[in-house]
Each structure stands twice: as structure tokens, then as C-alpha cells.
Amino acid sequence: MTLIEELQRKFPGQRLKSRYIDRIAHASDGSFYRLVPRAVVFPNSVAEIQALFEISRARRVPMTFRSAGTSLSGQAVTNGILADTARYWKKMRIEKDGTRVRVQPGVIAGHINQRLDAFQRRIGPDPSSIASATIGGIIANNSGGRSVMLESNSYHCLESISFVLPNGFYIDSESRSADDQFEQACPRVAEGLLGLKKKIEADYELTEKIRRKYRMRNTMGYSLNAFLDFEKPLDILAHLLVGSEGTLGFVSEAVLRTIPIYPFRLTGLLFFENLKTFGAAIQPLAETTPQELEFMDRQALRNVQDLPGMLSLVRELPDSAVAVLAEYHCPDEQALSVVRNSTAELVNRLSLLEGSLFTEDPRLREAFWKVRTRVVPATFARHPRGTIAQIEDVVVPVARVGAFMEDLHRLFKRHPGCEEMVIFGHLTFGNVHFIINPGFNSPDEIRHYDLFMQDVVDLVVKKYEGALKGEHATGRNMAPYLEAEWGREACRIMAEVKALIDPDNLLNPGVIINPDPKANLRDLKPLPRIHPEVDLCIECGHCEWVCPSLNLTLSPRQRIVVRREIKRLQESGRDDRRLKVLVRDYQYAGIDTCAADGMCAVACPIDIDTGALTRRLRAEAVSSKGQAAAVFSSRHGAGLEGVLRASIKMGALAARGLGQRTLNRIIGLAETISGAALPKWDAAIRRPYTGHLPPTRRQGAAIVYFPSCMTRIMGTSPTPDKPALIHTFLTVAERAGIPVWLPEDCHGICCGMPFHSKGYTSAYRETLCRTLNKFWDWSREGRLPIFIDSTSCAYALRSCEAALGGDDRRRWAQMTILDPIEFIHDRLLPNLNVNRLNRSVVLHPNCAAVKLGLEEKLSRIGRQCAKSSTIPLPHNCCGFAGDRGLLFPELTKSATRAQAEEIERQGYDGYFSTNLPCEMGLSRATGKAFDSAIYLVEAATR
């Protein structure tokens, strides 16, 4: 029996992936390393984790656990079995009034904080990737972040932990008998840990080194401080697992203490003439104990100074200037007053450039933080194509940070390609980051990188006695330098820890403990150029969790990874069979099931929209005849609407006569014969809108109402006794005293999004221009706002500037286009008498609403109209994507599974969104009748 055959017996169906496209898709993490796994599995229980360990041991196949795969040091890749722990390990429970949280490894850390926000608390770790990183990876790497004090990292906030060792032993340290269970079941491990503890404590020099190194941030190697901090073997092991990078066991659950969020903030943005004046200020600044103390060098500031909305004074700074952002968090006004006085005194002592100041103004605070938070995205966006944008992470004593940075700048000048490198960091901890752009496309580039890193190691370890990793963990990247930092005896103990717990060296081998002195130069990630839209992607994975197709086919990162592999195979001219298989499988996995919703750009640090790549590939696949047919359809939009209404009627009749299942079997047979994907029938499809448009008056109108084409085709409520969507909007507008005009000649007019998403470029531009010309006329040359009853259509028309030119762009810029959320929140509700309904409702902000930043307005609508209003977490794109949900219903089912489970657990009285296709998709996925939010407003204002 082969490995794959054995795994298939344990992990049936989609919980095992062994096709080449799937293995390539999972070959990359957020680092610059790539290893192609032999299989990707999705375990969903401790028993299955134990079975995986057994298979790994029996077959001598290495295994690595991965959740989000955002790690930067190469600790989440393998050429063995890759076990994905993000898909099924998502349970979370807030306990003890928010003072602690019980969580599984697949939960995104940012979602934990969103749940804790109601208690004014958060988890201790705060990495910059918190919106996409999972708690499993954060614990495994002991990740930090800008506001993480040493006492609030995962190691110190850990209250209990459940884990599985490579020998299959499972234990929950919270159990009263856990210590006895562990020592009886694993006596060799327990005794070995105590033996190592005695060895460390008997070595005064080593003990002092451990204590010194953990008085600052340090994630290099195993957490040897556990041997000094704890007495019992289980406690030692539990804390060794923190920061072990998945090399000692699998953490199935952790209970973490949370920390309070203080409501009072004082924020300062301070500018210094050069590194010397900055260096003299570090100690006085640190002594005021700010929660956040962020540094930016002049190159970092130069990279952000021209961004929209940036503080103008950043551009005017001298060439040698540097900046520090300091922030203090206070529990009450009294504490804030103390900090206010101490910082005022501090400013008088420091040598600062003009423009430096402290503020309590939230808007100015936001402007200050924008300088800092845009550094990494702006720098990543400038890195040369074909190179990696890599954040390195070191720590030096706080008092010596200024001198270290001067040395680092001198080091940059000695190495080719490093002249414009960026330095930033968390000064509270002496934690310095710098961004480099290594290329690995030739032996010379690899050699330059090697020499540069050797110089960095010498500078950090020998001259400054610092740490090579403060929060990004060792990984493959720093494993060869472990002994350089820790010394031979400490490294020998770390190797004994690994051998004691994983004697076969099968769990994530090569990470932390690696005898190969050039391990950091092996398995480097190739980055061939594929398309301008995505060439800057560094495969960090921040985009993955928002993607509707993540758990069905591919994520945005994986689409790019596979396209790069296709390009690599094309350029090599070898392995034609693999190339053909990849191209074939990519059609469904990469193109057909991409919603092209653009949410990946929202999550991406540099705004890469992988949907743009999909649209380009779709356009390249369309023949000239196909493009011409699309243009013809666009010019006969009114007729097309009639055909679609008739088709819906026929589909409803066929479903009633044959049954939905039989009808879809017939459609499936037609797909097989034609070779094309066809729409499937579904009970959530709305009845056609057959009524005439209600008469309205243009004269005296305050706003133009443009019903979207979907509303005109099937804009009915899923509840048969409710009026159509158009009539409901007009009814509520009349109650609010807002005169609305609905143009009679709106039939056949469309935002063009259906053509755009399918790659029909000519039809899209022609449709868009025709629509905007109509809008220009209807709005009296931009004097009246235009309201569209679909958020997606409104977004499409508000983000189309790149497709416009000349007069069309000028006119577009002068028009105001409102979506339903804005119309309801800004125009209707202020003029209505609202009687809050005694109902609990669910609101779904679709992807367009998120991109327009309208989640809070939608939430306010819910709170104003109902006693309880909830936006479930997560609330990603539903995957309906125009017609994707009809052509590939499995996409919507997969995309909405988590929301459906959340809704089913809680139970609500009403379900609302602001886009008809999304409402149909959500209705089908959840079994609940989602409707437009205007129906909620109408019911609350009768």
C-alpha cells in the first residue's frame, strides 16, 4: 500500500489532496522557501492527528503542521506530509468575562480580538499579520508585535494547553491529574526534561546567559527559560512548545489570559535630525514606559511621504532625519494626566525637529499611525520584480539601538543592492526590523545574500550581543546561526530537547535544529514573472482567509503560486506532462471558481487583486466571436432582460414539474455534452419582476433611483406577500419625504460588471460608457445624486475610473453615486420615525460594502431598526459573484459554510443584506430567507 492509499483510508474525499496542482499550491508559505509536499491532509480531530503521527513514524515520512502559513522564516513548508490545521480547528470560547480565551489553532487572531472587544480586552500577541495569522502559528512562533510587552507574549499568557506528542500521547494540562498522567505515560520524556533542567541550573554561565537573553525579546531556538521558570516536567514541556515552531508536537487547544484595552491614549510623533540625536533620546524615551515606541528611518519615511493623506511635514524632513512614534495607554484620566506631564517635560529635554508633538486628538493620532503602518506596504510595493521583499528581525540592547542602526546603514552601503533598504522597529524592546530585497535567480545573487547575512550575524551577535530573531522565530532562515548566537552548550541542550521528544526527527525537520551550515540557502523560492497584476506578490498569505474559494479549490496566493509554476515549466521546456496537467486543472481551480470579488486586495499589504489576473486570463481565452457576441448583448440589454425573465419562469415551471434534483441532473447532462458550465436551478432564485416600473416625477426630485438590472429582472422578496424591492424603496422614501425619480428609460442599462468579470473587455467599456452617459443626463449633469439598490453595482461604478477616458472620466468624477447602505443611513433614517422592532437580525455586509467601508453604517442601521443586530464572524464574500453561484453552486456552499454554522447555532428573526445575488446565495447556503435591508427599515417605520 502506498502512502497516498493509506492516507486515503484515513482522510476520504476532499480531506486529502495529492494532485500535482494541490501539492504545488501548498508548497509555499510566507517565507522565501519552497518545498513540495507529498500530500496535503486536513485532519479534524485529535484521533486523526495521532493517526498521522503513526503513519509518519511507520513510513519514515516527515510531517509539518500549517495553519495560515504567514510565517516569514520558512517553518511551514515540507517535502513530506503537510497537515493543514486551519480548516477544521476553529473553535473559540470567551471565558471569565473576557479575562481568558479558549481557542483552537485555526482561529484567526484578529477574530479573537473582535470577540474580546465587547469586554475591552485583547490577546497579548499583536503581530502585524494579526488580521490573517492564526493563533496556532502565533503560539508556535511566540510572535510579538509592536505593543507586546515581554510579560504579555504567548509564553507568559499561557494558562493551559492541550497537545499531541510525536509518539501519539495526548494530554490537556488543565486536567487535575495531568502531571501524573504525563509522568506515567511518558517517563523517559519527563525524566529527560528534569535532567536537562539540572544540567542547566548546574551551569552558572549558561543560566545567566538564558536569563539575560530572555530579559529582551528572543525567539531564536527553543524557550530554554522554561527550564528556569518551572519545576514540573509538564509545565516545562508546555512552555517549550511555545516558540517551538511545530517541531515538538501539535497544540490542539490553548487557554490564554487576555490583557485590558485602556481607553485613554496619548500619541506623539517625534522627529530627530539624525541617528545620533535619536540615539541620545532612546533611553529617556524608554524610561517613560510607553506601550508603543516605533522607529522609522529616513528611507522608510521617504517611501510613504507621497502617499495620499500623508502628513505634509514628512516630505519636508532633512535627508538624515528619523522619526519615532510613541504612544501611552492609560486606564483613566488621572493616569493620563501623569503621562501628559512627563511627556511635556521630556519634549523640553530632547533635541527635536520642528513639527514634533504629542496629541490626544483621535484624528491626528490616526494620521500619526498612518505614517508608521504604511511603511511596510509602501516598501513592499517598491521592491523589484523577481525579488523577495523580506523583513528581517533582530534585537539589540535598547540603550545601543542608535549605534546599531548607524552600523547597519554602513553595512547596507557595503553590499550591492542594499543602498535603499528600510529600517523600522519596536524600540521598547530594542527590536529592529529591516526590509531587504534578495533575488535568488543566479548563483551570484545567492552568494551576495549569504555574505550579507553573515555580516548581519556578526554585527548583532558579536558586537551587540543581541538576538537574531525577536518575534519571527528561527525557521530555516536562521537555523544555521543558532550556535553563533547561543553557543555550543545551549545548542547541545536544544538538540537534546528535540531528540528527547521527537527521536525520529520527523516533525518539521530542518527547522530550529539543522546541522547544515548552508540550510538557509537551500530550497529557495523561484519567482518567475507572470503578469504585472501579481508580479509583486511575495506569497505572504494575508489574502487567503477572505477568499471564498479557499476551502474548495485555490486561494489568491495559491493561484499565483500555480501560475508561477506553469511559467517555470514553460520556460524550462521540461516535464511537458506536468505542464499539461497543471494547465488543465487550473481552469476549474484557478479560473472558473475565482469569484474575482477583489477582497484579496483589501487583505493584501500592497493591494494586489488576484481577481484582475483571473479576468485577464478569462479575456485571453475569449475568442473574437465571443467578444463580438458580448458587445451585441450589451447593445440589446432590454431584450436580454426579457429573455432572462422568461428563462426564470421556464426554470420555475420545470422545477415544479420535474423536481429540482431531476432538473439539475438534466442540466448536468447538458454540461457534459456541451463541455460548458451551465446555470443550475435553485429554490433560492427569486420570482421574476413582471410589474411595470412605478410612475415617478422628474420635476422636483431630490435623488435619482436607478434599479439594478438584477432588480429589474428578479427584484422580488423571497417572502411572497411582500412588495417588490423597487416599490419598497419608493415607499420608504415617500415616508421620509424625499422625492425620488425613477427614469422610465432605465431598461437595458447596466453597470457592466457581468461583462468585466468574464473578460469581455470591449462589451464592458461600451456598456460602462453608455450607462455613465445616461447617469449624466438623469442627474442633470451631476447635480442630483444617483442611488442604486445594489451595493455591488454601486461599487462597480465608483471604482471604474481606470476604464474611462476623456469626457467620460470628467463626468464620472462630478457625479455622486450612492449604494443602499448610504442611502438608508444618510438620507432615509434621519427623516423617519423609527420604532425599533422586537427582533434579532443578522446583517451581511457583502464584499462591495466592505471595500466601500460601509460595515459600521450597516451595523447602525440594524441597531436602529431592531433590538439586536449581529454581523457574524467571519462574514466573507458569499462567492455568488454574479453568476458563479449558479454555475458552480459548490463555491457558494464552501464560501458560506462558517457563516451558516454560526447562524444555525444562534438563531435569529430576520436576515438582511444589500445585494440581490448575495441574498440568493446566502438563502441557499443557510436555509434562511435573506432579503434587502430596506425591508427591515420598512417594517420599523410603518
Describe this structure in words.
The chain has 942 residues and is an alpha/beta fold. The chain has 3 domains: 1-257 and 473-527, Uridine Diphospho-n-acetylenolpyruvylglucosamine Reductase, domain 3; 264-472, 3-Layer(aba) Sandwich (Vanillyl-alcohol Oxidase, Chain A, domain 3), CATH 3.40.462; 703-940, no CATH class. The protein has 43 helices and 25 strands. The strands form 5 sheets. A 7-stranded antiparallel β-sheet has the order 14-11-13-12-16-17-15, sandwiched between helices. Strands 5, 6, 7, 8, 9 and 10 form a 6-stranded antiparallel β-sheet that branches. Helix 7 crosses helix 8, helix 8 crosses helix 11 (233-241) and helix 28 (637-658) crosses helix 29 (660-674).
Q: Which key terms come to mind for this protein?
A:
Vanillyl-alcohol Oxidase, Chain A, domain 3; 6-stranded antiparallel beta sheet; Uridine Diphospho-n-acetylenolpyruvylglucosamine Reductase, domain 3
Please specify the SSE layout and strand pairing.
Blueprint: H1 3-10, E1 16-17, H2 20-25, E2 39-41, H3 46-59, E3 63-66, E4 81-84, E5 92-95, E6 100-103, H4 109-116, E7 121-123, H5 135-141, H6 154-157, E8 158-164, E9 170-172, H7 178-185, H8 187-202, H9 204-213, H10 226-229, H11 233-241, E10 250-260, E11 264-272, H12 275-287, E12 292-296, H13 298-304, H14 312-315, E13 322-330, H15 333-349, E14 357-359, H16 362-373, H17 375-380, E15 390-395, H18 401-414, E16 422-426, E17 431-436, H19 443-463, H20 475-478, H21 482-486, H22 488-501, H23 556-572, H24 576-592, H25 599-603, H26 610-621, H27 624-635, H28 637-658, H29 660-674, E18 703-706, H30 709-714, H31 725-735, E19 740-741, H32 753-758, H33 761-778, E20 786-788, H34 791-798, H35 806-814, E21 817-818, H36 820-828, E22 837-843, H37 847-851, H38 855-865, E23 866-870, H39 884-887, H40 889-895, H41 897-906, E24 910-913, H42 916-926, E25 930-932, H43 933-940
Parallel strand pairs: 2-4, 3-4, 18-19, 18-20, 20-21, 22-23, 22-24, 24-25
Antiparallel strand pairs: 1-2, 5-6, 6-10, 7-10, 8-9, 8-10, 11-13, 11-14, 12-13, 12-16, 15-17, 16-17
Helix pairs in contact: 1-3, 7-8, 8-11, 8-22, 12-18, 18-19, 23-24, 27-33, 28-29, 31-43, 36-38
